[in-house]
Amino acid sequence: MRRGPWLTARQVDVLLAAAAIVAVGTGLASWAVGSGWSRWLTVTHAVAGLSLLAMAPAKLRGSVRTGLKRRRATRWLSMLLGALVVATVGLGVLHATGLWHGVGYWSALWTHVLLVALVAPLLVWHIVSRPGRPGIADLNRRAFVGGGIALAAAGAAYWIQQLVVGDNRRFTGSHEIGSFNPAEMPTTMWLNDRSPRVAASDWELTVAGEPVPLQTLHDRAAPLTADLDCTGGWWSRQSWDAVPLAELLGDTDAPTLEITSLTGYSRLFPARDAANLYLAVGYGGEPLRRGHGAPVRLVAPGRRGFWWVKWVTRVDAVSRPWWLQLPFPAE
Q: Is the dihedral of CA 172, 173, 178, 182 positive or negative?
């Protein structure tokens, strides 16, 4: 077994696998959470990802060089895995620093997530297919010292990155775009959702089974400042013209609210959160644009953008638990 200055090849593999698992887990969690403690998930995700780069030289000196000499038929898959990991971390750095936002609809962050989906199965194959698979026994004192050095290097890199970025990033890692300027706020959709073309005069909205005219919302709407934080990697603060959902619901014993778009997209919310959910018909004193959810959309402060249902047509009180849904919508 080849030994480097600090770690064996198997110890490097254990540390790399641990860093990759932490990076994926905290990345998905930070993508979903819009509250303040997401900051620690974002920091942990960044440090775990950067530690992959910090340990790359040890990986190259050890098992990579040995594997290339053996000329296994699968060495090209292993090289593809390495290239994808480097590209994934690199895209994360480009997004974090704001040096590159992506091409068209696909932001640097979305491409980063897409590559993770490709890396995950290759990583599992790479670990399982090794003849001498790493194990817990490889985590001795030397492994912890080497891992600590990698973490320290990753932490220093993250600190430098934050100095470069400044205050533009929100605690979720998103960059500010178009605050209090709706015309500059991006228009994005979740996966295959599409913007419907229905005139406001033909729009039908029901709340708890009762029809609610859009004019009623316009008459009752009041300014509400809230941050829309998109999973595409941007956030925007707007003054939304909105009505608290609690004012429209009345009394309900149901534990859950289901808010549904004209497109069929829907999310479940705890009924107790009704006082912090709003139906918006405009922003900054002007009507919503179609791409931003016109004529009526949900505003859900403290939640990520995929919770902010656009083109709302129904708000229903339902009996099933609010958490009985996919963490991220599949439609």
A: negative
